[in-house]
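Thought: the user asked what Retrotransposon gag domain-containing protein looks like in 3D. I have the sequence; next I should run the structure tool and report back without guessing.
Action: structure_tool
Action Input:
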Amino acid sequence: MFHGLPSEDPIDHLDEFDRLCDLTKINGVSEDAIKLRLFPMSLADKAHQWEKSLPHGTITTWDECKKAFLAKFFSTGRTAKLRGEISSFIQRNNETFAEAWERFKGYTSQCPHHGFNNESLLSTLYRGCLPRYREMLDTASNGNFLNQDVDDGWQLVENIANSNGSYGEEYDRTNGARPTTRSSQTKS
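Observation:
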């Protein structure tokens, strides 16, 4: 139950609610309809009063419901902070591409109502990457990463992150394609 208390996390509540609803399937009834019918039963106190005060018929999709819920119970300060983290994203010098990608995804999932479209997010991620990873993305895109279809861009980011996460920075081709370790570095 979500009560609308400052100590509660509305994102966690939505995630738990989504997982619970994923267990419920009814032939001929859309996922949206199930969630819209069950959501009020997951609310109590201040949150329940808020839901009851919504004008009838103003929320017709699950996405609209989530946006309204987050607009009410996700603090504007937290939203502004996470929007800032997203819009000013920069990969850290000691961070692999996979780690940077996970951090970027974390920001967007912590603030699903961030308001950025997929094209803007992809551009922000690309522009915030270290130059060697921008070159890698451009090369894999036949010259210009940002000129490709957005869905293809996300797929390429995911593929490179998965590959980068498998090997990390310690991968060294000169050492027989094995990860380097302290003992192998000191034997030279």
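Thought: the tool returned a structure. Summarizing for the user.
Final Answer: Structure for Retrotransposon gag domain-containing protein predicted. The chain has two domains: 10-74, 78-169. The longest helix spans residues 150-167.
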